[in-house]
User: Which sequence fits this backbone?
C-alpha cells in the first residue's frame, strides 16, 4: 500500500542552450516546486520529455529530481519503455537511486494487444522493488487503454499500486474507486477536468501544467479535500487561462512544454531550453502569451 495523494507535478527536464541535460537546473526546479507546496514529484515522464532522453540521461534526471526534493516529498520515476526488459532494468536503477515509485507508460508505438500490455505490467510489477503507478495514456502511446476491471485485477494481485488516468473524461476515476479500496491510489492525469476528477474520488493530480500552476493546484486539492467547492472553483479559474492557451490554440500549434518554459522564463524562474525537435516559442508568440496571461497576474513569480 502507498499513501500517495495530492499535487504531483510531472516535472520538466531542464536542458542547457546546447540541449544537454542540466542537472543543477532540474534540481533547482524540483526544489521550487516543493517550496510551492506540492506533495510529490514525477520525474522523467512525458513532460520530462523522457522520449528524448537515453537511459543514462533518464537516470540523471531522476537523480537530479531526488536531490532537489531532498527527502521532503516522494519522487516517482518515469521508467516505462517499449520493451519489458528495459522497463524492468530502468525501474530497478531508479529505485536504487532513491525513487519511491515508478510510473510506467503503456508499452508504446508497436500497438500491443491487451494481452501483451497486461503481461508487460505483470512482469514489471512482479520484478519491481518499488510500487508501480500505471501511466494509462493511450493517446500518446498508440496502445489500448487498460480498462478499470483489468487495473483492479492487477492491483488485487499485488502488482500495481496506483494509476495516472490520462483521459479528458473522468468516468474512469469513478469506476476505479468503485472497484478498489484506499490502497490503490488514483490520480487524475489530464489538465482538462481536475476538479471533476477529484470530485469523482481521485486522490490527486499529476500533470505537466503543474510546473507553472503548482500553488493554485495545491489550493484546488486542499479545497476539494475540505469539500469547499467555491474555493476549488476559484483555484481552477486561476489555472484556466493557462489551459486555454493550449486547448484553444491561442498561440498557434506549439508544444505545451515550450509554452511552460516561456511562462517560467517570464516569471524569472529556472526554465531551461527546449531540446530538438521541440521548438521555442517565436518572439510573436511570446508577446501574445504575455498579453493573455499578464492581466490575470499569471506571470508573477
Assistant:
Amino acid at each position: 500500500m502507498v499513501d500517495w495523494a495530492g499535487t504531483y507535478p510531472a516535472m520538466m527536464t531542464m536542458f542547457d542552450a546546447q540541449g544537454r541535460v542540466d542537472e543543477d537546473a532540474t534540481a533547482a526546479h524540483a526544489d521550487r516546486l516543493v517550496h510551492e507546496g506540492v506533495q510529490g514529484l514525477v520525474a522523467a515522464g512525458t513532460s520530462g520529455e523522457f522520449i528524448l532522453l537515453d537511459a543514462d540521461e533518464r537516470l540523471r534526471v531522476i537523480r537530479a529530481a531526488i536531490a532537489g526534493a531532498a527527502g521532503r516529498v516522494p519522487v516517482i520515476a518515469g521508467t516505462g519503455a517499449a520493451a519489458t526488459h528495459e522497463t524492468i532494468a530502468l525501474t530497478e536503477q531508479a529505485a536504487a537511486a532513491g525513487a519511491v515509485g515508478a510510473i510506467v507508460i503503456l508499452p508504446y508505438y508497436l500497438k500491443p494487444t491487451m494481452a501483451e500490455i497486461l503481461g508487460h505490467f505483470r512482469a514489471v510489477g512482479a520484478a519491481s522493488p518499488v510500487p508501480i503507478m500505471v501511466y494509462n495514456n493511450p493517446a500518446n502511446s498508440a496502445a489500448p487503454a487498460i480498462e478499470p476491471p483489468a487495473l483492479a485485477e492487477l492491483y488485487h494481485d499485488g502488482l500495481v499500486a496506483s494509476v495516472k488516468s490520462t483521459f479528458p473524461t473522468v468516468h474512469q476515476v469513478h469506476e476505479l474507486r468503485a472497484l478498489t479500496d484506499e490502497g490503490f491510489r488514483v490520480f487524475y492525469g489530464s489538465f482538462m477536468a481536475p476538479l471533476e476528477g477529484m470530485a469523482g474520488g481521485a486522490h490527486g493530480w499529476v500533470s505537466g501544467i503543474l510546473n507553472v500552476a503548482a500553488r493554485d493546484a495545491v489550493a484546488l486539492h486542499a479545497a476539494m479535500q475540505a469539500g469547499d467547492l467555491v474555493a476549488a472553483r476559484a483555484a481552477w479559474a486561476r489555472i484556466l487561462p493557462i489551459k486555454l492557451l493550449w486547448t484553444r490554440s491561442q498561440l498557434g500549434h506549439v508544444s505545451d512544454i515550450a509554452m511552460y518554459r516561456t511562462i517560467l522564463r517570464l516569471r524569472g524562474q529556472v526554465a531551461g531550453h527546449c531540446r530538438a525537435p521541440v521548438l521555442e516559442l517565436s518572439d510573436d508568440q511570446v508577446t501574445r502569451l504575455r498579453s493573455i496571461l499578464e492581466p490575470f497576474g499569471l506571470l508573477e513569480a
In short: Residues 229-247 form the longest helix (19 residues).
